[in-house]
Amino acid sequence: MMVNLSIKARKFFPSLALAAGLGIAEAVVLSVGSGFLMNIMGIPMDSSMRGPAEQFLTWRAFGAPPVVIALAAQGTFRGFKDTKTPLYAIGKYYSMPYVSSSLKGSLCCL
């Protein structure tokens, strides 16, 4: 049974919007609350690793929205009983560094 694409799109975009909102909220909480998280983990204020750890958490927070959106998209495709599309997308995503590095290697020798 073929489902109309517009029906799929209407079900797909609200989940992505919710995921984007949650990802942005997670990023804000991680970046603003990095000092609080360091206190919860028990890292003292005078530790030499406190500054780099807070900086890492602040920068790492920017990666939260894309990850949450990707998870929501994968779950939506699974709901449509389409498991091939996320698999191909993940395969393309993870193969891109290898393709780009091989292209850089072959282009530098010209």
Automatic annotation (TrEMBL):
<dbReference type="GO" id="GO:0016020">
    <property type="term" value="C:membrane"/>
</dbReference>
<keyword id="KW-0812">Transmembrane</keyword>
<protein>
    <submittedName>
        <fullName>Protein DETOXIFICATION 44, chloroplastic-like isoform X1</fullName>
    </submittedName>
</protein>
<dbReference type="GO" id="GO:0042910">
    <property type="term" value="F:xenobiotic transmembrane transporter activity"/>
</dbReference>
<dbReference type="GO" id="GO:0015297">
    <property type="term" value="F:antiporter activity"/>
</dbReference>
<keyword id="KW-1133">Transmembrane helix</keyword>
<dbReference type="Pfam" id="PF01554">
    <property type="entry name" value="MatE"/>
</dbReference>
<comment type="similarity">
    <text>Belongs to the multi antimicrobial extrusion (MATE) (TC 2.A.66.1) family.</text>
</comment>
<dbReference type="InterPro" id="IPR002528">
    <property type="entry name" value="MATE_fam"/>
</dbReference>
<keyword id="KW-0472">Membrane</keyword>
<dbReference type="InterPro" id="IPR044644">
    <property type="entry name" value="DinF-like"/>
</dbReference>
